[in-house]
Design a protein that fits this description.
This protein is α/β, with parallel strands linked by helices and 216 residues long. It folds into two domains: 154 residues, 3-Layer(aba) Sandwich (Rossmann fold), CATH 3.40.50; 45 residues, no CATH class. It contains eight helices and six strands, in the order E-H-E-H-E-H-H-H-H-E-H-H-E-E. The chain has a six-stranded mixed β-sheet.
């Protein structure tokens, strides 16, 4: 069977005016992830990213210079928009700037969104489900044997949940576990699509790299 390796982007710029850029830590995480793949002899023969800058920067810092294909289905859900809708445009400063509060609130918001809440958001939950499925079909409708995708935590959570036929709420539980620059591997053949490995970070395993392990 062929392999679809989905790498979450490196650490972005949490709390900055422009979240959609890698931090210096994010660039280093990505470089190490690329080195680990090459050391393992895993060379992709197809590259795909979403359209987000942090995803494209991750691929470049991994050391893969060929121009990737793009599919917007691999983009993250717009959490800024969802929080904006939930709080009627007045998102509390603690939600914006405190990590624990932010992610606790985001979890509750996504669970509500899945059940039809957050009316007026730029994307419904059904739209998100549909575009992630379309992105998966795009990436696996190929003769390539090793497909490397750079995506985001929510998309990875959704890919895992659907591959396991898990309840939709599991998407967010998985999302919150996905580490920056982690590798989640699926195998596929035609319509068959299975989870093979989840959230691996062998490139961050050495003790001297413990400070590089991040989740946002």
């Amino acid at each position: 069977m062929a392999e679809l390796l989905v790498v979450r982007h490196g650490q972005a710029s949490f709390g900055a005016d422009n979240y959609d850029r890698l931090s210096q830590t994010g660039h280093e995480q990505s470089r190490l992830a690329g080195d680990a793949l090459r050391e393992a002899g895993w060379v992709p023969d197809r590259l795909v990213t979403g359209t987000l800058l942090r995803q494209k920067e991750t691929l470049r810092s991994m050391g893969f210079d060929d121009a990737p294909e793009e599919h917007a289905g691999f983009n993250e859900y717009d959490f800024h928009d969802l929080l904006h809708v939930r709080f009627n445009g007045a998102v509390p400063d603690t939600v914006k700037g405190e990590r624990k509060t932010h992610f606790r609130t985001l979890r509750d918001t996504i669970l509500d969104w899945q059940e039809g809440g957050c009316e007026g958001a730029c994307e419904t939950w059904a739209d998100f489900e549909a575009r992630v499925l379309a992105a998966r079909v795009f990436a696996t409708d190929t003769t390539a044997r090793r497909v490397l995708v750079i995506s985001s935590g929510g998309v990875i959570g959704q890919l895992v949940a659907t591959a396991l036929n898990a309840p939709k709420a599991m998407m967010m539980e998985v999302n919150l576990q996905v580490k920056n620059s982690s590798m989640t591997r699926f195998v596929f053949s035609g319509d068959r699509f299975f989870l093979n490995e989840f959230n691996a970070t062998p490139h961050l395993a050495p003790k001297d790299r413990a400070g590089l392990l991040t989740y946002s």
